[in-house]
Amino acid sequence: MKLNSIRSAILGIGMAVPSKILTNFDLEKMVETSDEWIIERTGIKERRILEDGENISKYAIEASLEALEKAKVSPKEINLIICATLTPDYLIPSLSVLVQNGIKAINAGAFDLSATCSGFIYALAMADQFIKNNPNWKILIVGAEALSRKTNWKDRTTCILFGDGAGAVVMGKSSEPEKRGIIDFILGADGSQWQLLTLKGGGSCYPPFDKRLPEDEYYIKMQGREVFKAATKMVEKTSLELLKRNNLTTKDIKLLVPHQANLRIIEYLRERLNLPKDKVYVNIHKYGNTSAASIPLALYEAEKDGKLKAGDLILLVAFGGGFTFGGALLHW
Ligand code: UT7
User: Fold this and answer.
1) Residue pLDDT, tens place only, 282-318
2) pTM
């Protein structure tokens, strides 16, 4: 295990999700699908969806304020805000700037990070590097998504999957570096398969209302089966590599907290790592796939459920469109 004398750690965590619930039964009325099919193929029962007129920044701010309170850090102490998102309120300003204003973090820099569903792990890795170079810094990381706004509600192969929500953590120097903090991470990408999962419309290639592009390209499009195959390989390889290079085995892990994209992908990984069910945290049934928000939402609820105790060794692993992938090992 490579342990620097300065380690970054999660000092506090918060979450906030819209109160509107969209169940599988609601979806049965919108597209040709069934509660049974969705549960069997994905594990999802319901997801949270923004009301008309609501924006995800509201939840990003709420989650951030809770994380700050738990960390006992004031907004003025925050040096940097990183929002991992692919669905910010606007392209300008960034979501992170709206959070900076909303929480009154008057001394913070702010930027958004675009790494799809792996965004939270990328942000953790970035914060870790900043803190190692500036040990007194406090960094707010937010994973927040409004995927319902980029979902094609006529496409049954994708609309059953996604949900909205926000999770936030405050990062700072670990006060007990021998027991708590980030150990190691892997960040990866494979752009050769980018066509399998896209949202083309609205970027600079096809600006909004560009007549060359069919309407469905203004929403998330995915070749699910191919993404599934690639995802299982990426999460297994990343998890095993992280453990191996830190001289750890799956037996050392107290909790695996994977990106919540599909229960079958999580189950595949659990079996490959030979972990019992109670060592893998799952909350996909309540929120669906919330992309960059999924890991902080799962971490928050794992701690609330008493599954995460100070000093526990946890493995985070994610993958997403691009492809991007990433993993992190840390002592909680
Ligand atoms: O976080 C970003 C990364 N994204 C992911 O990880 C998603 C990865 N992929 C998946 O989770 C799965 O591929 C899906 C859940 C999207 C689809 O599950 P699948 O088991 O791969 O189904 P499939 O695409 O192979 O489709 C099987 C059948 C098809 O019918 P035929 O061709 O066998 O007659 C589909 O048309 O199921 C049909 N189908 C549906 N039936 C009822 C597809 N969507 C639905 C639906 N309800 N919603």
Assistant:
1) 999 999 999 999 999 999 999 999 999 999 999 999 9
2) 0.97
Q: Find the catalytic residue in 259, 262, 283, 331.
A: 259
What backbone phi and psi angles, to 5 degrees, belong to 61? -70, -45
For 271-290, letters b (16+ CB in 10 Å) and e give eebebeeebbbbbbebbbbb
Distance 225 CA to ligand 1 centre (A): 6
Element (H, E) at 26: helix 24-28
Query: Under CATH, to which class is 181-331 assigned?
Result: alpha beta
Q: Which of 312, 299, 329, 330 is nearest to 70 (CA)?
A: 299
Domain 3-173, CATH = 3.40.47.10
Give the 3-state secondary structure of residue 71: helix
Residues with CB under 6 Å of ligand 1 are 33, 37, 41-42, 117, 156-157, 160, 224-225, 227-228, 231, 261-262, 265, 289, 320-321
